[in-house]
């Protein structure tokens, strides 16, 4: 495989100029009504780490930011993800995450509508790096699941 | 005369192409490649005398047992142990260290006792002690590093007390390449009556070693890091210490007598080898030791120094490359970890892989050490008997080209 295919310009651009990088300012989240959700994860084998913060309003991801350390693939993937999911309904976000996971794990194919995610076609050919690409997505999925569990608990109280 | 090209001919895998390029295998600290004699010995066992050991009276069982036990003698000779009954076969360094923790530590250590380790230990010489410390209320202390990546022996002397019961130290750091001063450590530990466990995973493959003159109490190492198969390791222990230890696995092979209410353990070392062992692996390991002995450990040691000196010199010449660990060649082995500019080790490893070069990227199972160094991960090149100067030149060229990928947006 050509290295160009792996380190696509889109990926390098997101790595060098990550979008939605940083933390959501505390004042933005009116604690209790619209709590700030946090989720983090690490790839224990290589030490890549991703921290995500997001705000949900009317069942939509109103805002999302990330920080982290790690390789080009893991950090670019996080940046691209935040752009794609911001403003989407939680259901749509979950669907996209699950679809991207299935694609990277070779159970589904890339389709043209995936936009910047098409840049990961090269990564999919390198089994050793698929985990890097999926880290941020797993972290967000975990965060959304925890958020939804809390909602259920709240309703049940 | 050390003829590296002739040696390479004995390793079939070195003729493989990876991503269309000749394989340049520089990940020997993870596991080494195997010579044909080892591969053949494993196949021969399965083809010609596959049988269980220490059980049957039939001929195949007798031959298999003889070959298996022959390796035990070879291992004993290789590290100059007093007797082959001091050699326990395990599945690797990790199991060997766990055997010391549970077979010895659980029996003899009590609340308030102290264990001294170093910050450069592999996780396998940290985690078992953390588990035991939690169970028993033991205290773990860690010897820090000096700026040059060697152990701060002065602090060790101040950490050690009458409560110290065990000092566990790696022979060679699997990240920094640092070779630790085992004799000083043994002397200080023994002076307070503490036992010494050496994690020899990275030392035994390249340093000619005499356990009797080092006077260590335990030594753990893995066959697969010294030309042998995976799934075989060794715990050397002084005979009188092994005699007092409890087994880790209860079952077949490890008992003298079993009644419904009680069992009597078998003699050492069989007491510690419950269940059918990795017979083929142990037999293959015997051939690996033969191979190393034929080359001569002194010769291997010299060649590794030569090659490491060359690699350090070449790598130091690369702009923006930071090497960790001692620069003094007498203090280190052929394991060289580094970071290159601000390019993540993962990316470095992937790009080199496209040139057929296998290196390791990550924290190499030494997270505490990486915290001390203040880095999340590093790249690691590790050399062994079949690596050449040409391979190092090719590594350096390939490293210098990496930046292009990032600069040009590929
Ligand atoms: C210093 C050190 N100790 C222990 C180990 C663990 O060896 P094994 O995985 O063969 O049990 C390794 C290998 O990675 C090592 O480098």
Summarize the structure.
Chain A has 6 helices and 3 strands; from the N terminus they run ααβββαααα. With 157 residues, chain A is α+β, with helices and mostly antiparallel strands. Chain A has one domain: Alpha-Beta Complex (Sufe protein. Chain: A).
Question: Could you please describe the fold and organization of this structure?
Answer:
- The complex is a heterodimer of chains A (about 160) and B (about 400).
- Chain A is α+β, with helices and mostly antiparallel strands and about 160 residues long.
- Helix content of chain A is about 50%, strand content about 15%.
- Chain A has a single domain, classed as Sufe protein. Chain: A, CATH 3.90.1010.10.
- Chain A contains six helices and three strands, in the order ααβββαααα.
- Chain A has a three-stranded antiparallel beta sheet.
- In chain A, helix 3 crosses helix 6 and helix 4 runs antiparallel to helix 6.
- Chain A starts with a helix and ends with a helix.
- Chain B is of the alpha/beta class and about 400 residues long.
- Chain B is about 40% helix and about 15% strand.
- Chain B contains 14 helices and 17 strands.
- Chain B has a seven-stranded mixed beta sheet, sandwiched between helices. Chain B has a four-stranded antiparallel beta sheet with strand order 13-14-17-16, with helices on one face. A two-stranded antiparallel sheet of chain B has the order 1-2.
- In chain B, strand 1 and strand 2 form a beta hairpin.
- The longest helix of chain B is centred in the first third of the chain and has 20 residues.
- The termini of chain B are far apart.
- At the A-B interface, helix 1, helix 2, helix 3 and helix 6 of A face helix 12 of B.
- The site of pyridoxal-5'-phosphate (PLP) has 14 residues of chain B, from helix 4.
- Pyridoxal-5'-phosphate binds next to helix 4 of chain B.
